[in-house]
Amino acid sequence: MDQIFDFEAVRKHRDRAAPRLARVAPLLEELGARLLDRLDDTTQTFATALDFGGRGAIAPALRARGMEVVSADVSARLAAQAGGEPLVVSSEDFGLEGRRFDLIAAHFSLHWINDLPGALIQLRRALNPKGLLLASMPVLGTLAELRTALLSAEEALSGAVSPRVSPFPDLRDCAGLLQRAGFALPVADVEEISLLYADPLALLHELRDAGETNAVLARSRKFAPRALFAAALAALPRRGERHEVTLRMAVLTGWAS
């Protein structure tokens, strides 16, 4: 399988984000609440849960529902502060124990995985029979305004472009990926969220503080042209006095058989 993402870069970005995470905690928690709202649609009870990469937005909410929670992350620092029993994931082979959890909640943590079908299979195998997977991830269309602005600005400044925003999966493929991984009753829907910034530089700060900076293997290792980000951010569309970018959050649900 083609490698798109640099796993070590993902880990380093999340390690560096750990001391700054409080700055973006309200946004992560709001999005996490939207994911966990799906639990209200089932009468099934869950005793054990895996918080996969939730960065503190998931484990406390699951513990408040009475669950025993393990918090896994590629960053040891984020795993330690996520709110559950920490578990460090050292590669894309997660090393999860089979049939251990009644619930797995993967909150904005699967979009950097090279082998997404394989990751979903691993998560299904870690579920008990009749266990539930809840996953959120950005899908195609997320940060489209930023991607377009960066490409246009870089081409104008240097005559060449480098990938600076991660590629995202297409929502149309997500339910099929769940089915391919062996989940029953796979569902994928999307919430489209507009993020508004008086100062668009705050967008880049939020991405950094969440550990979501560029981890594409093909990214340029050279310093960006000095004027690039200022030009790109100035070109972002506006809604009134604020700059606007789009987050398309897919929510995936599937049951282990």
Structural class category: alpha/beta
User: How large is the count of helical segments?
Assistant: 9
* CATH classification, class level: Alpha Beta
CATH topological fold name:
Rossmann fold
**CATH-defined architecture:** 3-Layer(aba) Sandwich
**N-to-C series of helices and strands:** HHEHEHEEHEHHEHHEE
What does it look like?
The chain is an alpha/beta fold. It has a single domain, classed as 3-Layer(aba) Sandwich (Rossmann fold). It is 33% helix and 25% strand. The protein is built from nine helices and eight strands. Strands 1, 2, 3, 4, 5, 6, 7 and 8 form an eight-stranded mixed β-sheet that branches. Helix 4 links the parallel strand 2 and strand 3. Helix 6 packs across helix 9. The mean pLDDT is 96.
Put the structure in a nutshell.
With 257 residues, the chain is of the alpha/beta class. 33% of the residues lie in helices and 25% in strands. The protein has one domain (7-255): 3-Layer(aba) Sandwich (Rossmann fold).
Tell me the layout of helices and strands.
Elements: H1 7-17, H2 25-36, E1 48-52, H3 59-64, E2 68-73, H4 76-81, E3 85-88, E4 101-107, H5 116-125, E5 127-138, H6 144-158, H7 171-180, E6 184-197, H8 201-209, H9 228-234, E7 238-239, E8 242-255
Parallel strand pairs: 1-2, 1-4, 2-3, 4-5
Antiparallel strand pairs: 5-8, 6-8, 7-8
Core attributes:
257 residues; alpha/beta; Rossmann fold; eight-stranded mixed sheet; 9 helices; globular
